[in-house]
Specification:
Layout (H helix, E strand, L loop, with lengths): L1 H9 L4 H16 L1 E10 L4 E8 L2 E8 L3 H9 L3 E3 L11 H6 L6 E7 L5 E10 L6 H45 L4 H16 L1 E10 L4 E4 L11 E4 L3 H9 L3 E3 L11 H6 L6 E7 L5 E10 L6 H40 L3 E5 L5 E4 L1 H6 L13 H5 L4 H8 L5 E10 L2 E13 L5 E10 L3 H8 L5 H10 L9 E12 L2 H30 L3 E6 L2 E6 L8 H25 L7 E16 L4 E6 L1 H11 L1 H4 L3 E4 H6 L6 E8 L7 E6 L11 H16 L3 H14 L4 H15 L10 E2 L4
Parallel strand pairs: 21-23, 24-26
Antiparallel strand pairs: 1-2, 1-6, 2-3, 4-5, 5-6, 7-8, 7-12, 8-9, 10-11, 11-12, 13-14, 13-17, 15-16, 16-17, 18-20, 18-21, 19-20, 21-22, 23-25, 24-25
Helix pairs in contact: 1-2, 1-5, 2-5, 5-6, 5-9, 6-9, 13-14, 15-16, 20-21, 21-22
């Protein structure tokens, strides 16, 4: 009979067929109504059996410690139960679900010849009589005889499953790698992960390096418009991203890192979590894959391996898709900008064929639709009436500009500014030319010409005013004047020579003038290495004092960038100081009939110049008068450095230093030093010399380079030796400009 077991099982071609054969042999031989073979799954700690339902098979799993089968498996010994309902090991719920009535049970461990336990054989309800020890011995003998064949089929099934899984894995990786658009790629990835790991949900988070956030637009359970974003160091996903190590959590709510708020929002219940970093080929973490709720249990080490293998294969696809997405966004951004421009922008390939043209280009070139110009030779578009431009287009090696030129289109002359820019590839190959055409006909041409000689805003006002002389004839108003001056200019000229000095000043003024005009100020004039700038005329603003202070702060920060660049080139750094005053000024065209300049004059202008020259005395870079200090609306980091009578004046004026441009490297612990300095200055005003000396020394401890603190230490020593006569008002008389 045992030989027959071996023979029958040898004929089977699959694990399912072998299990059916063994059940049939055991139930028939022993005489029972039903039988089941449970196999152990070491990875999950479960016993499983397969039940045929029509043409499909359903797998039933139970923990290998529960029920009669679990008891037999864990004890590795058989069991005979004559009355199932009187045995505590029996699970009555199974009968309730199936409608079958279990009376008696015979259960034996399924062992190989070597004694390895691979499952349990269980038969129910002996037809004649009760199960006896002989039945158990027979069952154990038959299962032991069948174990070799069953174990062989298990191995074959595992090999086939692994092979199928590998083929599916390669197929999926191939499909994913071929997708270039980011959103469809992410959708494919999470669908694949869910299927591969048999989980309820999957999400792939991508790191946004600009915001340091993990985000996803695609996730199971999310609608099309939902986007999840959170800092890349928070939660379980953040932990995995920052550490670069996977996390496997069997019970989510028992882990303090888990944030249950998302479950509350969606109604989803998270049981288990597997989270894996996504690394690129350089080993840099670019995202995190997260899967939730493994069906049938928790995620195991095999799941970790499979998810790690998958993420390692898809990382290049993600980076390619991100790059494609960035390129597409940049393309859309560039096209939007080009469409909104008033100037014509055309790209022409190395063969002289037009490849792109924006909307303004169609208008300026008088071409009705874009298809009439694309893929056409540029010489046909411009015709032989514009030979000068066609000749320039033949060889463009560097950026070139042609201002106030004329082109002829449909027998109409246009005044234009032309810009030509060579298009160079990554390998320095010639890709073609970018042609930009600015139509400056009529008043635009006149404005462009005037803007070369004066502030563009002033030119606009002049054009709008026409023959009226209100603008240029003289006007009194409140304005803010900014003076700036380069320090140690004589030393610079001696070291650089004439040409080097001129080149340096041109580079320096280019940067500084941008700082002024970006805040709506007007450059009044260059005075050697100094600049005089005005805020409030000819175009007034409600916050002109703030604009002047902001411009001065930016002039300091931009100067630092400029000096850092010069330092890397082995060139000497330069420094400057600025004085700002807000007061009544007179503006207008001043000069002779042959030469006139639009400028401003008045005591307010002179005071700004005096304050700028005082920067050296206090070791300051930005000084403002008390009038500007009271006029500004924003809050700045300032300190009063003096109450002084400047040269040529009789009334004292408060002088404040602005320090917002400093960082920790240029002035460490600035806020603390400011508080101590201000206390010291109050003690100075109260003639408490010793107390003031102590406080100014404390400032020097924080920043030994604080020249203003040293100045007051010297003044306090002087005042102790030469006490003031009469009542002390804190006023200092400046004897130099």
């Amino acid at each position: 009979m045992l030989l027959q077991v071996t023979t029958d099982l040898a004929k089977t071609k699959s694990l399912d067929e072998a299990l059916e054969t063994l059940v049939k042999i055991t139930t028939t031989t022993i005489g029972a109504e039903r039988g089941t073979i449970f196999l152990n799954d070491p990875a999950t700690g479960e016993l499983y059996s397969r039940i045929a339902q029509g043409s499909f098979r359903r797998e039933i799993r139970i923990l290998n410690t529960k029920g009669v089968a679990g008891w037999v498996f864990t004890r590795n010994e058989g069991a005979i139960i004559h009355d199932a309902y009187k045995d505590d090991r029996f699970n009555k719920a199974v009968d309730v679900r199936t409608g079958f009535r279990t009376k008696s049970i015979l259960c034996a461990p399924l062992r190989t010849v070597s004694g390895e336990e691979i499952g349990v054989s269980q038969i129910l309800n002996k037809i004649d009589g009760e199960f006896e020890q002989d039945d158990l011995d027979l069952l154990e003998a038959m299962t032991e005889q069948a174990a070799i064949a069953i174990q062989g089929n298990i191995i074959v099934e595992q090999i086939e499953a692994a092979r199928k899984q590998e083929l599916e894995f390669l197929d999926v990786v191939s499909q994913v790698s071929s997708e270039l658009e980011l959103t469809p790629l992410l959708q494919k990835i999470i669908t694949t992960i869910s299927t591969m790991l048999d989980c309820e949900r999957a999400t792939l988070f991508i790191n946004d390096e600009k915001t340091n956030e993990l985000y996803t637009e695609v996730g199971e359970g999310l609608d099309e418009k939902s986007v999840i974003k959170f800092p890349n160091h928070l939660g379980i996903a953040g932990t995995v991203f920052t550490t670069g190590k996977p996390v496997n959590i069997p019970h989510a709510y028992a882990d303090l890192r888990f944030n249950p708020s998302f479950d509350k929002q969606t109604g989803f219940f998270t049981r288990s979590i597997l989270c894996m970093p996504v690394l690129n080929k350089e080993g840099k973490t670019i995202g995190v894959s997260q899967v939730l709720n493994k069906r049938g249990g928790s995620f195991n080490s095999e799941d970790e391996k499979r998810l790690a293998a998958f993420t390692s294969q898809i990382s290049m696809g993600i980076e390619n898709a991100k790059l494609f997405d960035d390129v597409q966004n940049q393309k859309n951004y560039s096209e939007s900008i080009l469409s909104s421009m008033h100037d014509a922008v055309l790209t022409i390939d190395e063969n002289g064929i037009v490849k792109t043209c924006n909307t303004a280009g169609l208008r300026i070139l008088k071409i009705p639709i874009v298809s009439d110009i694309l893929e056409q030779p540029i010489k046909d578009i411009l015709s032989n009436k514009n030979d000068w431009l066609l000749n320039k287009l033949e060889k463009v090696e560097e950026e070139e500009e042609f201002l106030d030129h004329e082109i002829i289109l449909d027998s109409e002359k246009l005044s234009v500014n032309i810009s030509l820019l060579p298009l160079i590839g990554q390998k320095k190959e010639n890709l073609g030319i970018m042609l930009m055409i600015e139509d400056i006909s009529s008043e635009k041409r006149m404005k462009s010409t005037m803007s070369r000689y004066m502030d563009p805003e002033l030119a606009d006002q002049l054009m709008n005013a026409g023959d009226s002389d209100d603008i240029m004839g003289g006007k009194q108003s409140v304005g803010t004047v900014l003076f700036s001056d380069v320090r140690s200019f004589t030393t610079i000229t001696e070291e650089l020579g004439a040409q080097g000095t001129v080149k340096l000043l041109n580079e320096y003024f280019t940067i500084m003038v941008d700082c002024i005009t970006d805040e709506g100020g007007m450059l009044d004039k260059f005075i050697g290495d100094a600049m005089m700038c005005i805020f409030g005329t000819p175009v007034p603003h409600d916050d002109d004092p703030d604009r002047a202070v902001r411009a001065a702060i930016r002039m300091m920060t931009d100067l630092k960038v400029f000096n850092d660049k010069r330092s890397t080139e082995g060139k000497m750094a330069i420094d400057h100081g600025m004085g700002i005053n807000t007061d009544s000024i007179v503006s207008g065209n001043i000069g002779s009939p042959k030469r006139m300049d639009y400028t401003v004059i008045g005591d307010g202008v002179n005071l700004a110049a005096r304050i700028e020259s005082a920067c050296k005395q206090y070791g300051a870079h930005i000084l403002i008068s008390e009038f500007t200090y009271k006029a500004v609306k924003a809050t700045y980091r300032t300190r009063q450095v003096d109450y002084v009578i400047v040269k040529g004046k009789t009334e004292p004026v408060g002088v404040y230093e602005v320090l917002d441009f400093h960082d920790d490297s240029s002035y460490p612990n600035l806020v603390e030093a400011l508080g101590i300095f201000n206390d010291g200055y109050r003690s100075w005003n109260e003639a408490k010399w010793d107390q003031a000396i102590k406080l100014f020394k404390d400032v020097k401890k924080i920043n030994p380079n604080d020249k203003a603190a040293q100045l007051y230490l010297d003044r306090c020593d002087h005042m102790k030796k030469n006490p003031p006569k009469g009542e002390w008002d804190g006023v200092w008389v400046m004897t130099t400009k």
